[in-house]
Amino acid sequence: MTMNATKLARHTIRELLELGVCDYVISPGSRNAPLTTAIYEASERGLADLHVRIDERGAGFYALGVAKATGQYSVVICTSGTAVANYHPAALEAYHSDVNVLFLTADRPERLRNTGANQTTLQDGILAPLLTVDSASPLNLSEILVGGPVHINLQFDEPLLENDQSDWLAGFTLADIEDELPEKVTVEVGSTGVLIVGHDRGGFSVEAINEFADILDWPVIAEDPLAIAAALPHASLFLADPQARAALAAKEVIVIGRTTLSRSINSYISEADRLIVIDPRIEYVDTDRSAEELLTSLPHVIKHATPQEWEQLWIDASQAAHNVISADHRWSEQRALISITSHLPAESALFIGSSRPIRDIEGFAVYGEEISTFANRGLAGIDGNIATAFGIASRFERSYAILGDLTFLHDISALANQVSENLTVFVIDNNGGGIFSTLPQAGVAGFETIFGTPHNLDLERIISGFGVPVQRVKSESDITHLIAQRAEGLQFVVVEVPARDENAAALKEIYQSVAKAVRIGINLA
């Protein structure tokens, strides 16, 4: 049944509201006017949280951030044409990280496709691999919004808006939705295993993983050590040494989520006799993932008692690495991140940018009590990181973000739509792509031109040009003082660090020192 534009939009928005969907991110446009006016009317009644983003690319990532923070569906809405294509990076990130974002796009009627009509393209399937539901009629959204990102493409014919003053929200009630709990399987494991938790935790809550780790009672490695209480710090550093890796070899390894950061961790996993992977995405995203056992939910565990000497071996290795790191007070990117993460206030949120910052936090940070951490690890791109942090900040009293300078510049358009929330964004300024100085391509012919890519820009002037408060810090004491101030609203902090090649050399020294100390600490030397 075809329905006129106003009625179709109102029907869609009302059904979303009754399903408990509260957050709507819109970008201005004509074809999506029936939807945006309906959302505005709902927001005026206190039924919807309305967020306006000028740029569709940033809007998609903002909605991604909101959905990450709430765990619920957020809706992002745009007009037809190229506006839809700008959602694709955020749609891919949502798909591969299994985040609940509804991409709701407005379209011309189907009869206008392939006719040369204005702002008309083939929007059905444009956000693949997301499922697209293409319709000019009302939909049963309870059967569509069953978890994971979705694309709904609604065809609106003219007239787009009617002078219909009826109370379309009268009698509004929330639907009664029951969550289905997955059936638990039982897994029997041995005594000398290791639990490894990927940065996105496979979509499981921190509480659920901490409880599982407590029951398992194995040494725990976490790509995000800030979030997991039982995680032993610095594993990605000391497992880079082949001798230490061999001495700490496990009979069994359980991996929750994906391990996407360190080669040392993935090498360690590959050397285990038995691998168990726990990740809901293996059903529909990572379908070719391999292991001795593949599970989609946290299992009930039957296990043998963990030998005290096995636990102590890991504690000694971690402590030896920690002693080396604590004794090295050289100012560096790593020291800056240690300082930031160790002073964050309880119950705040931290968004960690892709590339070098997230790897340094994996290697150098330690557990931070009551800190909610986020990162875009679906495809690990540097695009949309500011917009994602803005979306996350909308749901926390105080938030922080750590980004590289290229990541910042890549999403600078997000500053056109600033936020009023208490968000401090640290930008590590090493004038280019610092991570490449630590990868095999370091030193190749043309390195600075095609990898280092120095921007030679004054980041403070750029940020202040948007009317955003900005400071520059150059030391641990600067960072400690700044975080203690608890500034209100949005502010950026440019962190001045040594040159990229100097940082890479210092990192190499740390790896060598850690390897030597750990060998002594676990009696290999």
Percent helix range: 25-40%
Radius of gyration: 25 Å
How many individual helices?
18
Category by helix and strand content: alpha/beta
- Shape annotation: globular
Largest beta-sheet details: 6 strands, parallel
Oligomeric state of the chains present here: single chain
| Text of the CATH class of the largest domain | Alpha Beta
The low-pLDDT segments are none
CATH superfamily descriptor of the largest domain = Thiamin diphosphate (ThDP)-binding fold, Pyr/PP domains
Notes on the protein architecture:
- The protein is an alpha/beta fold and 525 residues long.
- The chain has 3 domains: 5-155, Rossmann fold; 186-316, Rossmann fold (3-Layer(aba) Sandwich), CATH 3.40.50.1220; 333-497, 3-Layer(aba) Sandwich (Rossmann fold).
- The chain has helices at residues 5-18, 33-44, 56-70, 82-85, 88-97, 206-216, 235-238, 242-247, 263-270, 308-327, 333-342, 356-364, 385-393, 405-410, 447-452, 459-465, 476-485, 500-521, and strands at 23-26, 49-52, 74-78, 101-107, 132-135, 150-155, 186-189, 193-197, 220-222, 252-256, 274-278, 293-295, 300-303, 349-352, 372-374, 399-404, 423-429, 470-473, 490-496.
- The protein has a 6-stranded parallel sheet, sandwiched between helices. Strands 15-14-16-17-19-18 form a 6-stranded parallel sheet, sandwiched between helices.
- The longest helix has 22 residues, at 500-521.
- The radius of gyration is 25 Å and the shape is globular.
- The model has no long low-confidence stretch (mean pLDDT 94).
